[in-house]
Amino acid sequence: MKTRKSQQQDYVHGYTETEHTRLLDQSRTLTDLLHHDTHYPAGAKVLEAGCGVGGQTVILAKRSPRARFTSIDVSEESLAAARRLVAKERLANVTVETGDILHLQFAEETFDHVFVCFVLEHLPKPLAALQRLRAVLKTSGTLTAIEGDHGSTLFFPRSGDAWRTIQCLIDLQAKSGGNALIGRELFPLLSQAGFRDVRVSPRMVYVDASKPDFVDGFTKKTYIAMVEGVRREALRQRLIDAKTWEKGIADLHRAAEADGTFCYTFFKGLVKK
């Protein structure tokens, strides 16, 4: 059985302040794309499994102010950041707690809804995690799962070196037991976990110079920053050489210039128990 400490180490992006900032930038930029159809009724008990630094937490709590959220994570560093953010936003409908998805301390059929976002990709046993989350969900309750898929990345101008930097991230995540390509697997995973009425919709981010907020908030501060974050480990493991890495990152930034384009797909699943 993995300890909480080892699970934290499996998070390929790390727990630095830079990563905390990137996660908050990501949540703000993608709010409308991912959450325009996420609402919970008054009095509903919602479990947010893997809340991280609270970027999704504040969005959920503000969009459903009369629902009650229990937000859990294994990282004490992330939980501290989430608590600060919840306090800053003065959200009275959120409780932040330490919790391990695979070893939940809640009784079965406790929650009306479960929300899990950008978490399954980091778990060595995503199916087991979904089955455990299903157990604490009330009969006829719902679960929402959102995941990305790094293999869906498209950009112009094309660059093999840029793709090599992305592949480093994919490979490092796989080495840590995760799956950076999990978005395409969301439907079969949710089905195999025993959920019914499984519906998965793609949420595509397309960015060009006509969308300056997305150029800055997504292409630069979310995606490229995510890839740049694994530089040290990619070089240490000799997955790429320094010259190719620098060229690849420069080419990714090239896609954020006036004549560049960038595209990425997230997948959002909604199911019933």
Give the tags:
alpha/beta; disordered N terminus; globular; single chain; Rossmann fold
Quick structural overview:
The chain is of the alpha/beta class and 273 residues long. The chain has eleven helices and eight strands.
Structure notes:
The chain is an alpha/beta fold and 273 residues long. It has one domain: Vaccinia Virus protein VP39 (Rossmann fold), CATH 3.40.50.150. The protein is built from eleven helices and eight strands. β1 (45-49), α4 and β2 (68-73) form a beta-alpha-beta unit. α2 (17-29) packs antiparallel against α9 (212-228) and α7 (160-175) crosses α11.
Looking at this structure, what is the CATH superfamily?
Vaccinia Virus protein VP39
Helicity range: 40-55%
- Tally of structural domains: 1
Strand content: 15-25%
Report the span from N to C terminus: 27 Å
Q: Give me the count of strands.
A: 8
Rounded average pLDDT: 91
Inertia-based shape: globular
SSE ordering: HHHEHEHEEHEEHHEHHHE
Radius of gyration: 18 Å
Number of helices: 11
Helices and strands, with pairings:
Blueprint (H helix, E strand, L loop, with lengths): L3 H6 L7 H13 L1 H5 L9 E5 L5 H9 L4 E6 L2 H13 L5 E5 L12 E7 L8 H10 L1 E12 L5 E3 L3 H16 L10 H7 L3 E12 L4 H17 L2 H6 L5 H13 L6 E12 L1
Parallel strand pairs: 1-2, 1-4, 2-3, 4-5
Antiparallel strand pairs: 5-8, 6-8, 7-8
Helix pairs in contact: 2-9, 7-11
